[in-house]
Amino acid sequence: MTITKEIIIKKIGLNTGYNRFESKKVLDQLLDLIFTKLGKGEDVLISGFGKFRISDKGSRIGRNPHTMEEIKLQARRVVTFRPAENLRQKTNFSEEYLRQAAIRDAVLLSDNYEPTN
């Protein structure tokens, strides 16, 4: 599921009691702060979530996938994200979870599976 700005605005409103306009303003101010700091080349660390950082990528030779022609790609700045440890732990599934998921998928893909109502 993709989390859109609209979903975040609704969640802020539900958790704070703010109306939609106030919730949107909070989110916009947060994003503006992050964009401003990154635009200045500063790192943005959100404790318990992760760190946004600007990295410089040098110029390199690339290839046009349609014509296979080599082209020179300009140097650029990119935003990278490194998740905090607790975020990494929450997104790495246990072996038991993966085993159960594999069993479930095998059942769903079998020819004689009939869903129960």
How would you describe this protein?
It is a single chain. With 117 residues, the protein is α+β, with helices and mostly antiparallel strands. It has a domain at 1-41. Helix content is 46%, strand content 23%. It has 4 helices and 5 strands, in the order ααβββββαα. The chain has helices at residues 5-16, 20-39, 85-91, 95-109; strands at residues 44-46, 50-57, 60-63, 70-73, 76-83. The radius of gyration is 22 Å and the shape is extended.
- Sketch the topology as an H/E string, one letter per element: HHEEEEEHH
Number of helices: 4
Helix content class: 40-55%
- Adjacency order of strands in the biggest sheet: 1-2-5
List low-confidence stretches. none
| Global morphology | extended
**Structural category:** alpha+beta
Largest sheet: 3 strands, antiparallel
Strand content: 15-25%
Radius of gyration: 22 Å
Report, as a whole number of angstroms, the end-to-end distance.
25 Å
Q: Mean pLDDT, rounded to whole units?
A: 86
Number of strands: 5
